[in-house]
Amino acid sequence: MLNIIQKKNMTKICDNKSVGILVWKDKKLLLIERKKFPHGFALPAGHVDEDPTFEISAKRELEEEVGLVATKLELTIEGNKKNICRRKGGSWHYWKIYTAEVKGRIKRSKSETKQVGWYDKKELQTLAKRTTMYLNKEITEDEWEKSPGLEPVNYEWFKELKII
Length: 164
What we know:
There is one protein chain. This protein is of the alpha+beta class. It has five helices and eight strands, in the order αβββββαβββααα. It has helices spanning 4-9, 54-66, 121-135, 141-146, 152-160; strands at residues 17-22, 24-25, 28-34, 41-42, 45-47, 69-82, 92-103, 113-119. The radius of gyration is 15 Å and the shape is globular.
């Protein structure tokens, strides 16, 4: 059996499978600001890795990144998206995005997030405009890292889901 350090060192290759979790409260969406590449505001999300199901990964990522426990998961959308990540071979991912009912209090991962917050439609639109500028190369990588918008893959999903 692998110890945790060995297991973490083996995650350098992308499994090309990701989950994202939509958590709503009072018409506001829970987002994290990523501390590591790819920078931007995003759903709690991550790779499936060795988990036996996407659902188990979704629950794990939600708890790891924001400290919330999913009491119910409902598949909202799935599909392939171009999605560059920091792992080798991570140019695309097959995503499953769930809507979750949760319990607990937010306790953000200090190693993975700069901040966690609830964003209304107007705030999401502001973040989306920043992403549009980034994708159109109107702002530099340095400017983006200091003050990002929506992580591009989330921007794509949010458009498809008509969140923005």
